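Deliverable D5.2: sample structural annotation.
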Amino acid sequence: MTVFKTFLKVLNKCKFSVILNTVILLIFAGVNMTTSDTQMNFEATKPDILIVNQDTNIGITQNLMKYLEENCEIIAVKDNEDAINDALFYRDVNYVIYIPQNYRQDVLKGENPEIQIKSTGDYQASYAEMLLARYVKVQNIYVEELAKQADDKTLAEEKLEKEIIEKINQTISKQTEIEMTSKLDTTGLEKATFYYNFANYTLLAGAILVICLILSSFHEEKIRKRTIVSSMKYQKHNRILLLSNGLFALVLWLFYVLISFFVVGNVMFSIQGLIYIVNSFVFTLCALTIAVLVGNIVNNKNAMSGIVNVIALGSSFLCGAFVPVEWLPDTVLKIAHCLPSYWYIQSNELIKTMEEFNLETLKPIMINMGVVLLFSIGFVIVTNLIDKKKRKIA
């Protein structure tokens, strides 16, 4: 009981660190929740283009012009290259299309005439390029197919052109219907994933900083000597201290889980929410073992902040707690495999895409949790070896 009371006294001195980490979590989580509320619906906007038509505006050429006018905003610019270049430079126009002379006749002959373009290279220019490429591709297919059916190309040219235009317009007028089959609350799951990914930092930082400060207090020379000469066995002292640290880690984890119900919302009442909680509990056990290991290695209280930055911040950046995993280079991810945070965050990323819950879908998450537990066991073994060596020296 004496050890536990002393533990609580030291913990009371560290309450500022716990509160600070909690405030950081809430600030970052709150900012993310606000940005996530914005609907990310895609709506195609018409690019601003300029058409320089050097051909006669009839037949196939006219149909191309009509297609571009329906799908793009046509901008009027003076008919000289300096004015066109200025319009591109100032982004008044995103894309310039030069329809060459004899374009219509060359298409009907199957020569596939080249259309010159100028582009700003931005996303609207890319969209305009996609529209033009789509039309030309469809046009070339029908010219090739229908030309084979014409017995006399000279006599059938007008009919052939009309049929080509009809086929082109029928094809490009078709729109793909998109049906959302997934019933996942993607916005809520994104929020939960961000919250629990960021908890990688707060759980590690809170556990390491507080537990290391507590252990360093117990490892002071005067305290150690009093413990050694007391009637309490050293093993019992360590066991009570470990359980006390475990209790603190459990309370810290429960506190962050309770906050998640308020910050994230209804998702936490789903099966996905339960898996997030279990996954964070497994990682909390690992954070506890890391904190105890560091606390047995380092006794300098002034060095604790630096250690927290190296371990908590370093692993969070490398493993995707702050930056989305898909944005990280492959080299960084290979290094991250050596850290328990990577496997914890990977589980969170898998949870947000889960729609069915069975042994097959849960298997990858269970493997990740198992890896985190293996890391925990490894840290415990290393801690015992260091502690045993220290006792021999003492």
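Annotation notes: The longest helix spans residues 359-393. Residues 3 and 238 are 9 Å apart (CA to CA).
The annotation will be released with the project's public dataset once the embargo ends.
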